[in-house]
Amino acid sequence: MEDTATLARPGRARRRFVAMFALPIALCAVVAAPAAFASGHLPGFPIPPRSFADYAACKAFLEQTARDDRARAEAQPRETEPGVTRQTLVISDGVTESGENQAAYRVQVGAQFRRRDEARESIVTTFSYDENSYRCNGAQLSGESGARGYYQPGYEPLPAPAR
User: Fold this and answer.
1) Read out DSSP for 85-128?
2) Could you give the CA distance from residue 126 to residue 97 in angstroms, rounded to a whole number?
3) For 41-90, what is each residue's pLDDT tens digit?
4) Which helix (H) or strand (E) holds 21?
5) CA-CA distance, 11 to 132, in Å (whole number)?
């Protein structure tokens, strides 16, 4: 027996179809998708506000923090196992000023892994990071710490063998 209410309202039938078939199929596709094809970012937490003697002292704190972070960067990757390298990268624009007595510093510090994938004839690169951001508004420091994220894997062809 046919549902006459469904025949009278085709939009309703479409919604039922989506609810009964398409939505569960889409959810299965999301659940079955490999994690390697995702990237993401988790927000951090506000840092406790801090007061400095003046704007110059707050900005000096940001500049020292930037120097400390840059010191963590590794100039060259190091091999962790055959065919796999790891390198600590520091990604930042440094301390920037956006107005009178306003400065900011944002940084991503993370591990970049590169590994040979002979089956795909490629080098696979992954990167996950911790992120911090700080702002000076006059002598007041605020910001966020503890954010985390990762990027989708990157692929590049294996270099041609040397002759």
Assistant:
1) EEEEEEEEEEEEEEETTEEEEEEEEEEEEEEEETTTTEEEEEEE
2) 32
3) 899 999 999 999 999 999 999 999 999 999 999 999 999 999 999 999 99
4) none
5) 48
Sign of CA dihedral 116, 117, 121, 126: negative
CA–CA gap between residue 117 and residue 137 (Å, rounded): 48
C-alpha span between 115 and 119 (Å, rounded):
12
Q: Do residues 109 and 90 make contact, with C-beta atoms less than 8 angstroms apart? A: yes
How high does pLDDT run on average in the chain? 82
Going by C-alpha positions, the residue among 129, 130, 134 that lies closest to residue 106 is 134
Q: What pLDDT was estimated at residue 161? A: 78
What tokens does 163 get?
Answer: 């002759």
Residue 113's closest CA among 138, 150, 144?
Answer: 150
User: What is the reported pTM?
Assistant: 0.70
What one-letter code names the amino acid at 156? Answer: E
For residue 54 the two structure tokens come to 């003046």
Which residue in this structure is represented by tokens 């590994």?
Answer: 115
